[in-house]
Amino acid sequence: MSDREFGGNDDLSLPKATVGKIISEILQSDPGVTFAKDTRDLLIECCVEFITLISSEANEIAEKEAKKTIACEHVKAALEELDFGNYVPAILEVAADYKKQQASREKKQTKIEQSGMTEEELIRQQQELFRSATDKFNAAPQ
Amino acid sequence: ISTKFPVARIKRIMQADDDVGKVAQVTPVVVSKALELFMISLVTKAAAEAKARNSKRVATTHLKQAVTKDEQFDFLSEIVGKIADAPAAQKEEDGEGRKRK
Q: CDD domains, alphabetically (chain B) (predicted)?
């Protein structure tokens, strides 16, 4: 699957509807203020330029470290280099959340694999547990 | 802000640069956050420029003003360069004579 073969220039832009929604969210506290359509389109160009700028810088930083993959660290360094250091705390938070999500996803998968049972067996076991819990509950003195 | 940018699209834009090779899975997610902050900053400033000119409609010239006034946005000067400047005191009207269409 080659991402570069998908469609023409349109795919190297951001969806107008999504950008429009974000603009509305940003201007929530200022009802009545609207962005003209061409202003929104110009903003999209600026956004793409921003992504390109950060990517290019992050790529250079990665190359200097002889790394072939652009990692979060490189993006962080790029932001600092390009005078966007104020964005760093937020992106580090996002990166930490993402890693946590990945870890818990992997942990769940490993636990299922380690039980050595098939899904059917696990479901059966769960039903047994429920049944015995219900029995205990019903048998308990009122 | 609850609306999210499409992460796959961001990755595609990053890799449109031939020099850029592989990108870790978390990277476009992080760039997406940076982009969100960038947009908040630029949109807010452009809206402020519109307000300063008594306009409820944020026009391209307001965006240009926001870009020009902040050093952080120097890299955008070429993109906004094609937009005409409006004199500060003038009220905004439709039909600014843009050639973008």
A: HFD_DRAP1
